[in-house]
Amino acid sequence: MRAPILPADWPYRTVSRQIASKPHLWHVQDVGTGPLVLLLHGAGGATHSFRHLIPLLSPHYRIVALDLPGQGFTVLGARGRCGLDPVAEDIAALIRQQGWQPFAIIGHSAGGAIAQRLAELLPLQAVVGINSALGPFEGLEGWLFPVMAKALALTPFVPSLFSKLAGTPAQVRQLIATTGSTLDAQGQALYLHLMQKPAHVSATLAMMSQWTLTPFLRRLKDQKVPSLLLTATNDRAVPPAVSARAAQVMPNATWHDIAGYGHLVHEEAADLVAAPILAFLSSVHPTGAA
Question: Residue 94 falls within a domain, yes or no?
């Protein structure tokens, strides 16, 4: 596999590296010292989504952020390993290979679901979900969306065509707006770069088409790892009620809602997200945050 070239202005480019761990070539960013916290982005994102959160967490913790298989700058090694279980298993294998011992995982959206799944595979002490995708698609979209995504993912030239049609400043602005969030020019430019990458689009479609949560959701009642579920009131992608319901089922979960922001709240108002995260992590691992 050939490592992709990161743009010169990509956030935290200087701490980026590529790690081969079967079957993927992972893009990883490693910054800070202290107890290790792993960051997992959501579908269609990359490590850049934590660009404002990392400087608030890294003074207290060692932060390792990675791109999910095929997304961002991780090279996909097996197209059939983009669903919840395979992704979690491959991340767990990477963690073991590197000798990392994360005490906590912070995940956004789909990354939040992956983080909770990893809590079943690793000896974690804490999980933080930011607008976590901890619920099934509802209504017509419940069966139509995965079917459509699978059809698109398997159709030749669709990712390239999608990149050309959707990879424009206007389309990216519109896409971000549909999540209930508003990003600055830099944030929009970073997503524009990703949308113009057919490989990134293809892997995102593959993830959506393979996304199955039903067995995992049935086990939420058995999740004993302390979990903080953060939501944003204006989230149009994953309604806050999803995390509220999950918190009622999970024995050691706390739900905290942040007013006035959308699905990308950690990019819009990192300080409002970092404060409850630092307080929570400190309560779980007092030697971490100061």
Answer: yes
Looking up residue 60, the CATH number of its domain turns out to be 3.40.50.1820
Query: How many domains are there within the chain?
Result: 1
From 120-129, 130-139, 244-253, the region with the lowest mean pLDDT: 130-139
Q: State the burial class of residue 184 (Cβ atoms within 10 Å of its Cβ: 0-12, 13-18, 19+).
A: exposed
Query: Which DSSP category does 15 fall into?
Result: G
Whether the model clears a pTM of 0.90, i.e. scores above it, the answer is: yes
Distance CA 59, CA 176 (A): 30
Whether residue 279 lies inside any domain: the answer is yes
**What domain range includes position 106?**
13-140+213-284
Q: Give the 3-state secondary structure of residue 41.
A: coil
Q: What is the DSSP string of 184-245?
A: -HHHHHHHHHHHT-HHHHHHHHHHHHH---HHHHHTGGG--S-EEEEEETT-SSS-HHHHHH
Task: Tell me how many degrees the CA angle 35-38-44 measures, rounded to the nearest 5.
Answer: 165
Q: pLDDT tens across 33-84, in order?
A: 999 999 999 999 999 999 999 999 999 999 999 999 999 999 999 999 999 9
Q: How far apart are CA 109 and CA 237, in angstroms?
A: 9
Question: Cβ(6)–Cβ(73) under 8 Å?
Answer: yes
Residue 193 near residue 48 (C-beta atoms within 8 A): no
**Structure token digits, residue 207:** 């993830």
φ, ψ at 167 (rounded to 5°): -85, 55
